[in-house]
Amino acid sequence: MAVTKYNRQFNVRRQSAAQKTHLKKLQAGRSGHHEPKATSSTSRRKVAVLVPLTPPGGRVDQATPAELDAAHMRTTNEVCEGTLGSTIQAKARSPAKTLHMINASAVHKQNNTEAFEAAHTTEELEKFVRRKACEEDTRHALQEVRAEHARVQKENSERKEVSRKARKAKRTARDNVLEQLEIHLEPAFWDNSTVARQPTVKDISLQLSWLRVPSRGVKVPAGPSKAQRAELVQALVEVLRGLDEDKVKLLYAQNVAEREHAVLLPSTDGIPGETVGGTVGDEQSESEEDEDD
């Protein structure tokens, strides 16, 4: 058993040494603009090789690193894969943009186009460029791109507006229910519940939602909305135990005033259960959605 373990460790060290030697040969080959040699047969593990994307002996292959950098030429797979990922992300953010527009934007950012334009562009040159662009756009391709971009932007705006109205209706329904809610701020009311009066998850969630309104000035954890009943009861009891006597009196006064001035709804049966009962933490999730819009 010990001999087998020793042989395994020896083989691993031998493979690592072979890989290091092979990588050094590859680096030396790339620095001399030669094609990388094949992977050593003594190594069992495959080593990633950066294959040149241009034919050997060509102008790109014979160019110096400074010339390649000045021409913004990327000649290895690792750089091209990163550029491909950036292109996919840009296409996802702006579906109406063509590949030519994405490439132009990337080159504009990489080669300091703004500084070059500021140093060399004149008003006459800008007029000439615009006139030539209009003359060459015989098929009205730019107009089609702008129309497609406007259509996508309009669809996004309409979708966000529908989502915004749905969230507003949900908040209104929740506020109407909370205004008619009778609160109980005694920890014993929730901690020592009898068999005849077992508060449901909906009751506990509504109580936490009422306390979580910013005007109450009560710190309520944002996580219990998806918790089990025992965890909700524990969270509510901990919040109530942290209130002093003056705060409890003030909260009761607010509750009485809200119930007196509440607009009675015809029925709350049409309000979804997640809108009424699962309201703990909804305020935070809705604000995050607004920021995403």
Broad structural category: mainly alpha
- Written as H for each helix and E for each strand, in order along the chain, the element string is HHHHHHHHHHHHHH
Share of helical residues: 55-70%
Proportion of residues in β-strands = under 5%
Distance between the termini: 64 Å
What's the multimeric state? Answer: single chain
Low-confidence stretches: 1-8, 32-43, 267-282
**Rg, Cα atoms, Å:** 34 Å
Shape: elongated
Average residue-wise pLDDT: 71
The number of helical runs is 14
Strands, count? 0
Sheet bearing the most strands, described?
none
Keywords: Coiled coil
List keywords for this structure.
mainly alpha, coiled coil, single chain
Describe, in plain words, how this protein is organized in 3D.
Residues 14-45, 266-293 are annotated as: Disordered. Residues 283-293 have a biased composition (Acidic residues). Residues 135-172 form a coiled coil. Keywords: Coiled coil. There is one protein chain. By secondary structure, this protein is mostly helical. The protein has a domain at 165-292. The protein is 66% helix and 0% strand. Helix 10 (201-212) runs parallel beside helix 11. 8% of the residues are buried.
